[in-house]
């Protein structure tokens, strides 16, 4: 089997590394993308205290960057002195928003035309990004795509370009210590979903599988303990490292069926991404089992030799954390669920799933 693995992001990992971001910006004019919230004003003050002021701060996005808000962000960005590098300080929403700004050339219309009319981006104008994640989950700091939500039309787009891999990812686990339980749970499960979805994936390869196995094992062991001790920096460090490894895995494979299912669940009921993309994992795992020897082998490295018992344990793991695993808990009837899975199997991510035949037969 031929395969390839590539990820160009420079990774810096360690507690206190926020203070090194200024050195990475260097003499470049920079823009900051972060939340308009007290904790992030504190982080930003720490950063600007060393790096000096950014040419512009974009703070109008809270979560799930949406076309309407991004148009305003791009307008502010375009009106400011041109930046040479963008620093994204926040969760996946901030890193994804930074990717949209980086590709926009100061006008959201550039990105909209690309997403809707498939017009090429202005490649030479795409700006470098320094990604400083404050959640341990999305992996966006090492991927080349961003989710752009269009809630007005009940849909979502994926903005993707090789130039959108961040220049550097700075992972400082201390920044995640203030994340509340619900956010820690959802982001932790998002990372678990990235790891497993890159295993049952037609694009899987030995490098992505190694990252994914390591990530999944670590999350299953660490997350329940972390949820009991949210201020434990050592557990935060382990969880962030696992989320990074999951990101490195799916940066090359993309996700699969559980993520494709999640988009409709989120758009329909507003269920937070990390829960929407993980409640179906035990079911999706059962469809994947037996489809491909390499996939089974990787799953055995995570769950042990008996995969059916492993799927059972995965379900119990989620339910013990308070995550219901049946679709009805998300307002989806049995009939609707079958339609939703059928649609997801035809989606861009669903087509990556190696267990499509078993899922179609179910
Ligand atoms: N590009 C990718 O590869 C990729 C992958 C998965 C998900 N995503 C996207 O990422 C988004 C979700 O990102 P997310 O789950 O990281 O959350 P988020 O960025 O949407 O943030 C959610 C909330 O968490 C708070 N928060 C963040 N860090 C905190 C901290 N350290 N302490 C206290 N509060 C904190 C923020 O204030 C915010 O209100 C979704 O839009 C999803 O589509 C992108
Ligand atoms: Fe995800």
UniProtKB/TrEMBL annotation:
Essential cofactor(s): Fe cation
Pfam family, one: ADH_Fe_C
Ranges where the Alcohol dehydrogenase iron-type/glycerol dehydrogenase GldA domain occurs: 8-173
Fe-containing alcohol dehydrogenase-like C-terminal domain span: 184-347
Entry keyword set: NAD, Oxidoreductase
Superkingdom: Bacteria
PROSITE patterns membership: ADH_IRON_1 (PS00913)
Similarity field: Belongs to the iron-containing alcohol dehydrogenase family.
Stated name of the protein: Iron-containing alcohol dehydrogenase PsrA
Gene designation per UniProt: psrA
């Amino acid at each position: 089997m031929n395969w390839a693995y590539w990820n160009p992001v420079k990774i810096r990992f360690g507690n206190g590394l926020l203070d090194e971001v200024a050195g990475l910006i260097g003499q470049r004019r920079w823009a900051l993308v972060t939340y308009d919230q007290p904790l992030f004003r504190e982080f930003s003050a720490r950063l600007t205290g060393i790096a000096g002021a950014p040419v512009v701060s974009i703070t109008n996005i809270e979560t799930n960057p949406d076309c309407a808000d991004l148009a305003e962000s791009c307008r502010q960005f375009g009106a400011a002195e041109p930046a040479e590098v963008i620093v994204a300080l926040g969760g996946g929403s901030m890193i994804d928003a930074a990717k949209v700004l980086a590709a926009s050339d100061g006008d959201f219309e550039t990105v909209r035309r690309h997403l809707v009319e498939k017009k090429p981006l202005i490649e030479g104008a795409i700006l470098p990004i320094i990604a400083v994640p404050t959640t341990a989950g999305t992996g966006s700091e090492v991927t080349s795509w961003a989710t752009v939500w269009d809630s007005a039309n009940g849909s979502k787009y994926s903005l993707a370009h090789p130039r959108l891999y961040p220049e550097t990812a700075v992972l400082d686990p201390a920044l995640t210590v203030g994340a509340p339980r619900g956010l820690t749970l959802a982001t932790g499960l998002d990372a678990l979903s990235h790891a497993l979805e890159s295993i049952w994936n037609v694009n899987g390869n030995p490098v992505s599988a190694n990252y994914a196995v390591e990530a999944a094992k670590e999350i299953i062991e660490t997350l329940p303990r972390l949820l009991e001790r949210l201020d434990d920096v050592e557990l935060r460090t382990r969880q962030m490292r696992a989320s990074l490894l999951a990101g490195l895995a799916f940066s090359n494979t993309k996700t699969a069926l559980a993520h494709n299912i999640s988009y409709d669940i989120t758009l329909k009921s507003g269920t937070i991404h990390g829960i929407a993309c993980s409640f179906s994992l035990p079911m999706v795992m059962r469809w994947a089992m037996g489809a491909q020897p390499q996939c089974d082998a990787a799953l055995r490295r995570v769950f042990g030799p008996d995969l059916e018992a492993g799927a059972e344990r995965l379900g119990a793991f989620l339910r013990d954390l308070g995550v219901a695993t049946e679709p009805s808990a998300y307002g989806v009837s049995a009939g609707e669920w079958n339609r939703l899975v059928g649609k997801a199997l035809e989606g861009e991510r669903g087509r990556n799933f190696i267990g499509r035949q078993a899922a179609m037969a179910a």
